[in-house]
Structure formats: C-alpha cells, structure tokens
Design brief:
By secondary structure, the chain is an all-alpha fold. The chain has helices at residues 7-17, 19-25, 31-37, 42-70, 72-92, 96-110, 112-124, 127-141, 143-159, 162-182, 197-208, 211-241, 249-270, 276-299, 305-331, 338-363, 369-390. The chain has one domain (7-390): Growth Hormone, Chain: A.
C-alpha cells in the first residue's frame, strides 16, 4: 500500500472525491434529451440534480460519524458499491420517478467519497498543510469536470443517455477496489469516536455552535451554490437557448474548469506567503466580480455564449481559490472528529446547493438572466458571510489576527 503522505495517495483520494462532480457533470449534456425521452419538463429534469444534492446532504450526516467510528476505508468502499448499484438503476429507468429515486440512492453512496476524502486529508495533515493539500487535491480533481461533459456528450451521441450512468457505475466499482487495496486507513485508532446517540449529538452540537465552522461553511456553501446554479442551468441556456450542440457542450464547460484549476494553482502559490484567510478574501472578490459581470450582461440583454462563459470562468477562478481554504478552515478546529465536521460541512453545502438548483429550475424563463442573477447573488452573499463571520472568527492559524480558541 501507499504511504499516506505520498503524492499518489493524494491523487487516489482526488479520484475518489471526483465521483461527486462526475455524477453531476457527466450527464449535463444529456438533460434536454432525457427530458424528451422520459416525457419530463425542464423543472423535473433539473430536479435530478437537486435530489442528488439533497440525498448527498442527508447521507453525509450518517457516513461521517460511521467513519469516525469504523474508519474511512470501509465506509467509502460500501458507499461506492451502493453508488454502482444505483447507477445501474438510473440506466434502466423508464420514468422520471424511477430516475429520481435512483439518483437519490446514488447520492447516498456517492457522499462517502467527498466527505471522507476531506476527513482523510485532515487526518493526515495539520490545518495549514491541509489547506495547501486540498488546493492540490482540488486541482487534480478538477480534471473530472473538465472531461466529464465531453465524455458524457460522446456517450450520449454514440450509445444514448443510459450509457452515461453505466460508465459512472463502472468507475465507482474501480474506485472501491483502489481504496480497498491501495490506501492505508488514515484514521488513528485513538481518534475513533463512539456511536452512542448522545455522544453524536454532543459532537454535532459542538461543531455547529463553533462560530469559525459556521463562517467557513456558510461562505463555502454560498460560493458553491453559485457554481451549482451554473450546473443546473447551463445546459438549458447553452443548448436550448444559445444553440450549442450537445456534443460540443463539454468543450465550453472545460473553459470554466480551466478557471477553477487556475484558482487552485493560484491559491497554492499564494499559500507560500499569505495566510489562508487572505487568499480566501481575494478569491471572494474575484468571484463577486465575475458573477456581477454576467448578471449585468444578461440584464442588458447581451445574450451570447461569451457573455455567459467568460464571466463564469472569472467566477470559477475565485471559486478555485475559495473552496480549499474554506474546507480546511471548517475542519481546522476538530482534529478528533474530522469525519463528523466534514459531514456537517458537506450537508450544509449540498442543502444550500440543492435549494439554489431548484430555485433556478423553477424560475427559469428560457434565457440566461435567472441563472446569472443567482450566481451574482451567491458571490455577493458569500463575501458578506466572510466579512461578518470569518474575519471575526478565523480558524486556528488562518487569520491575520490571533485566532479565537474553539471547542473540538
């Protein structure tokens, strides 16, 4: 097996965490054709994204404590197997109701990768090191959404939308084998937690009442909500409204992934001389500029692919700088219950994303205006959350001032 601090361990963890974005991004080009095939409206098809996020949020509250008790590896392996079975159900679905059910089950299994990947990084590294490693992990993981829509478009054109879910199921089985035989268990025996309900409630209460955790989690969730607003609306805006071919959707999508990777790499470079919260503020300002620019263009009825993709690429540079810092910051104060902290963090993140996705689907008017206004609002709200909470209650070693002591 690999050494936990090896770069290959980070790469394999990134591949495991990538199951989450693969499950959302790979079938984006197929959303319009799935709606026609299953006789479902735009709001119903977009609900397959939101129901996934809702299931993701719920499942993390369970798999986090289980992983704090039994270790990261067995929970991840079990989750990937469930994901594979649910993917087969998605591929065989003949109605929108069946597809929604299987997407929910997919989320229950798929949640194990991201929540436990974050926890494993916290198990292995110190909080400051974890911020840098998460930026590296995010850069590697970004390869998944870079190629996923293109691959999904090719599978859609050659074999139909069901083949996308079959490919996802195969990937999850491969990752179950990789985790089982390639990575040591990162959770130290001394850090294993009890599963007694009272103990779990005390843990979650301690985490939820920590102002530092609340600040980083809310900032992350709002920025991620802006990203999810784009994921929820982009295929309908680009394919249905702006006339982009489904098989070409992935090439346009790759431009925003490039922005995300640039943000990750910038965060890694700045991490050598700046504190994480200083990087976080710069990223939020960039994201707010990108989202606001897209909203202004849409408000003035400048409808074009460039008017959507260029501002979103700027927004994604900010997202790439923000997400690693907020993930590491939210978990920094909880070294002995990183699984539970990561679970609550992910639950809030996905719940906010699901709500924003449903909002975009419900209010969609056929243009890019609703999506653009939502993205801009998320960027502005995230910046406000940072100024109101994170600046006042930075994680240990993250802020410019001496950090406050928090329980954990």
């Amino acid at each position: 097996m690999l050494v936990l601090t090896s770069i290959w361990t980070t790469i394999l963890l990134a591949a495991a965490v990538a199951l989450g974005p693969l499950a959302t991004d790979m079938y984006l080009p197929a959303l319009p054709s799935m709606g026609a095939n299953l006789n479902a409206g735009t709001d119903q098809i977009q609900l397959t994204l939101s129901i996934y996020m809702a299931g993701f949020a719920i499942a993390q509250l369970v798999c986090g404590p289980l992983a704090d008790r039994f270790g990261r590896k067995p929970i991840m392996i079990g989750g990937f197997i469930l994901f594979a079975l649910a993917s087969l159900g998605c591929a065989l679905a003949t109605s929108i109701d069946t597809l929604l059910l299987c997407r929910f089950l997919q989320a229950l299994g798929g949640s194990a990768g991201p929540v436990l990947g974050r926890a494993a990084i916290r198990d292995i590294y110190t909080p400051r090191e974890a911020a840098r490693i998460m930026a590296l992990l995010a850069s590697i993981m970004a390869l998944a959404p870079a190629v996923a829509p293109t691959l999904g478009g090719l599978l859609l054109g050659g074999f139909g939308w069901s083949s996308i879910f079959l490919a996802l199921g195969i990937y999850s089985l491969v990752m179950a084998l990789v985790i089982a035989f390639g990575i040591p268990e990162p959770l130290a025996p001394a850090h294993r937690q009890s599963l007694r309900p009272g103990h779990l409630l005390r843990n979650y209460r301690s985490i939820a009442l920590d102002p530092s955790f609340v600040g980083y989690t809310l900032t992350n969730s709002l920025v991620f909500g802006g990203l999810f607003a784009f994921l929820s609306g982009s295929s309908f805006v680009l394919i249905d409204f702006l006339g982009v071919k489904a098989e070409h959707f992935g090439f346009y999508f790759a431009s925003i992934v490039a922005g995300y990777i640039l943000g990750n790499l910038t965060a890694m470079r700045l991490g050598r001389r700046l504190l994480p919260d200083q990087i976080l503020l710069r990223g939020l300002m960039i994201a707010t500029v990108g989202g606001t620019l897209m909203a202004l263009l849409a408000w003035e009825k400048h409808f074009s692919v460039a008017a959507v993709m260029l501002p979103q690429a700027v927004f994604m540079i900010g997202v790439g700088m923000v997400l690693p810092q907020t993930m590491a910051g939210a978990l920094a104060n909880f070294p002995t219950m990183a699984g539970s902290a990561s679970a609550l963090f992910g639950c809030v993140q996905m719940a906010v994303a699901a709500a924003i996705g449903m909002l975009v689907g419900h209010l969609h008017t056929g243009t890019s205006l609703v999506m653009a206004l939502t993205i801009a609002s998320c960027g502005i709200a995230a910046l406000i959350a940072y100024l109101a909470l994170v600046q006042r209650f930075p994680a240990r070693g993250f802020g410019t001032a001496e950090p406050s002591v928090s329980s954990g």
